[in-house]
């Protein structure tokens, strides 16, 4: 285990150092996140003010604010972009050297993604959590959590990270075949934003879109951990079923990614070096 970590941890450190080195990019990203939260606040405030009832699809205004807060937290904690790394490696031609090294390319991508998550925790999650904690002294957020909820939330969060990693990794493998990565990035981002609950809670979807969302893995990477934290899975069986379904998706995506890797590596076209 020590030799394994010594081999891959430098990739995590490199991503952290790169993020810190580009301070302007980091500051803009943080400001955009807070601006997004502020925008969501005013949008939903307008929705509830113009609603005939104080509860919409089971959400009060306060619960909606908690949902918005949690979805951004979970999104940041599970933030991954292996498809971007793959694109850069293919374009530069460095992929050829990486593939002949005695390391797993997918594991390398995983540890690089861990670096991005650490950056998110330090520069966004912690400040936002502190802000929410201070806000709770002035506004009753009605958040009641227990040890079982926290435990399953952590498990669900870890599973969500793996699901989002494998999903983006699979999209990244398509770059080997298309070379042009811009369309792949936009396609994944659009599908995930809609079907993960990032824009609006999935419960607001019409029946057809709700069915599609339940079939796809995207809600497992964001919506499910948020639901766990908000206590929407009331029994132990419900919680076990939720994380068990996530685990099933991890296994399925792992198998699918292995199949795709074995096929696309034979058709690799290197641009650059």
Describe the structure.
- About 75% of the residues lie in helices and about 0% in strands.
- The chain has about 270 residues and is mainly alpha-helical.
- It has one domain.
- Helix 3 runs antiparallel to helix 6 (about 105-135), helix 3 crosses helix 11 and helix 7 packs antiparallel against helix 11 (about 225-230).
- The radius of gyration is 20 Å and the shape is globular.
Question: SSE layout and pairings?
Answer:
Layout: H1 2-21, H2 23-49, H3 61-77, H4 82-92, H5 95-100, H6 105-135, H7 147-178, H8 182-195, H9 207-215, H10 218-221, H11 223-229, H12 236-264
Give the overall silhouette: globular
Which structural class should the secondary elements be placed in?
A: mainly alpha
Count of spatially separate domains? 1
Supply the number of helical segments.
12
Mean pLDDT score: 82
Which ranges are low-confidence, i.e. pLDDT below 50, for 5 or more consecutive residues?
269-273
| Proportion of residues in helical segments | over 70%
The number of E-state strands comes to 0
Q: Please indicate the percent range of residues in DSSP E strands (runs of 2 or more).
A: under 5%
Distance between the termini: 33 Å
- What is the alpha-carbon Rg in Å? 20 Å
Order of helical and strand elements? HHHHHHHHHHHH
Largest sheet: none
What's a quick, concise take on this entry?
The chain is mostly helical and 273 residues long. The chain has one domain.
Descriptors for this entry?
76% helix, globular, mainly alpha, 273 residues
